[in-house]
Amino acid sequence: MGAPVPGGVDALLGQQHLGGLAANDDGSGSGADGGRDDLANRRPELRMGYGFSALGDRFNSTPEFGLGLSNGQREYTLGWRLGLDRGGPVSIEFRLEATRREPANEDGAEPFNGLALRGAKRR
Question: Which residue ranges form the domains of the chain, and what is each CATH number?
Answer without folding.
Answer: 1-40 (no CATH), 43-122 (3.90.1150.210)
